[in-house]
């Protein structure tokens, strides 16, 4: 019988006190192994967006399975040494950001280094079980927020903590300043670290900076409609209530149930992302009990790389290549229409992305002086699909991670991550952040959407 997995961190009971289990060494800076150019490099106008000036936390777990290629099996030593050597090639990541004329960002390639924390935890991977999944309740233990390190300007661009476990496995947690690269760029860097950890002299894919390729055109021209920056729409719905985070897992049974809500022409051409996003957006909007005339907005973080979007960048480019094309609806129409209405809007958001759209975003950013995303509180929702970034393929010499993904949702952003269970069944885990009362209603709406009357409802873990 199908069981729908819901993770609620407020109800997790762990058998031991985690803060007493993790012993950390003093944070240290890892610098490039050899001298690197001391220079300044401008970020692209896509990197410069106010909407990506935040840090993203990632967490990965590894079993005790060191490669025979490794000369020794201490993950802290192996990874820290490999990081130092990888930074010879990715030396901008060892620098610090500055803001210059017209709020543009540049990186001072000072070689100061990235922050690294060595830790040990008196716990095994099996004992942690699903507690590693987002929203990870022990994130602060596995990724110590070093005081003064989480600024956008003048702070380390990456923070990494490697925590050894008593079973011989380890937790690799990372916090990235998103302005420097997207998930694909991060994976490229971590793959380089993994290759060097396993004996390579240099990354198989040399990094390419060339951020000028995605700078504003001369003269800049806004050629597309950008609802994601539209502050002329009345987004007055704000909810100051305390929020909670829970994650919901969508597997084959849930996807099959969602397809039953669609007409044949949509059922056969809608992706898993389309179905999940439409379902979550609709249930979320219903749960917030807005004024029926309230405008709600969905922004899908869409990457412009790949054959569908014709963005030609050199192999090795590791800058941001995505934007947030948005669609809008009244709350009333979204809540009262069949699921197919929301699916069509999700498809419309994705279809907006093209090389022209991305360049229009860069030009908009330049002309408008780097405006923030026009976020109106809970009436806005952003989704980012991280299931195919390649993070789950990162191998430092211990094989692929048991879990790899973003550690939690951030404000109004839900990052979809891959969750393969013990039966190797592919599932998508969706972290959601909502006020507590809305979260309860969200769960009830979700139960209706995926026919919970036909399945067994699990208790929270």
Task: Provide a descriptive summary of the structure in words.
With 461 residues, this protein is of the alpha+beta class. It has eleven helices and 18 strands. The protein has helices spanning 75-86, 125-128, 139-142, 183-197, 252-259, 264-267, 272-287, 331-336, 339-351, 355-368, 436-449, and strands at residues 6-8, 22-24, 28-30, 39-42, 55-62, 96-99, 105-109, 114-121, 158-165, 170-177, 243-250, 295-303, 322-323, 326-330, 380-385, 403-406, 413-420, 426-435. Strands 1, 11, 12, 13, 14, 15, 17 and 18 form an eight-stranded mixed beta sheet that branches. β17 and β18 form a beta hairpin. α7 (272-287) crosses α9 and α7 (272-287) packs across α11. The longest helix is centred in the middle third of the chain and has 16 residues, at 272-287. The protein starts with 5 loop residues before the first strand and ends in a 12-residue tail after the last helix.
Name the shape in a single word: globular
- How many helices does DSSP assign? 11
How far apart are the first and last residues' alpha carbons, in Å? 18 Å
Oligomer: single chain
Cα-based radius of gyration, to the nearest Å: 22 Å
Range of helix content: 10-25%
Key structural traits:
18 strands, globular, alpha+beta, 461 residues, seven-stranded mixed beta sheet
